[in-house]
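User: I'm writing a tutorial on reading structure tokens. Could you give me a worked example: one chain, its sequence, then its tokens, then a sentence or two explaining what the tokens reveal?
Assistant: Sure. Here is the example chain.
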Amino acid sequence: MSSSPHMRSDETVTKIMRDVIIALVPAGVVGVYFFGPRALMHIIITVAACLVSEWAYNKITKKGYNTIGDLSAVVTGILLAYNLPVAAPLWIGIVGGAFAIIVVKQFFGGLGQNFMNPALAARAFLFSWAVIMTTWTAPHTVLPLFATPATDAIATATPLVALKAGNIPDAGLFNLFIGDVGGCIGETSALCLLIGGAYLVIRKVISVRIPLAYILTVAVLTFIFAKGNNNLEFMLSHVLSGGLMLGAIFMATDYATSPVTKKGQIIFGVGCGLLTVFIRYFGSYPEGVSYSILLMNACVWLIDTHTKPKAFGEGDKK
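And here are its predicted structure tokens:
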């Protein structure tokens, strides 16, 4: 909680989560359009796994209250599903959903007490099955609804693989913008994610500070340190590729795991951008969004401590 003065608001957790779900719908619809009904099946199963895990934990620990209705578990389930490759086996969403809700959220005290974003932490955990989590499918590929497709039959490269090698992706900027490229279910369409982000800003659910600082940092660094001769296209390809938009708009802005001060939010966004570019350039994995946000989540207490406003009359010690 930020320092005083405090203001009363009619906003509730349920209203905020409902707005986030509405904002996530366009990216989900486009994901299902490009990756087929199996993408929708992943979303349904992962959301159900999160809801059941939430209910079961409360039941087993006899907490005696119902947190299903606040919709936070639904948001976690959608975000986790959006971070899954469509070809992944369906059980992966169940394992990830249970880990996100029980280990990352409830073990630390429940909603608002977790220090890491549950969906991102679960995604990092699911990289224990690295082959599954890095097997991408080209859009418009018809996959079976329930059976797990053979990896060598559907694997394709994502734009980030080309960028890491210093090449401009063949897909082109327009396809990157609308999402007609390989990648996770809900991360490919920058257009739809920006529409969702604009909705959240208009509804005052989030501010633009973290997403703007995050995306601008990635843009500036990839423009200055572009590989090849076309700095602008290289920069735009980085901004529109991978999970940058999804992470910057929907995950880095998580209330419980981001700074409360304005200056701290800008520092947080810049830190996420720096780490993302560092991992994309020097790491073995071409994406860096998930781990950059998780690392900055661990620094939130430090950022808040050094950016909180001083109380009236409080000065430096002499």
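What the tokens reveal: The radius of gyration is 20 Å. The first strand starts at residue 136 and ends at 137.
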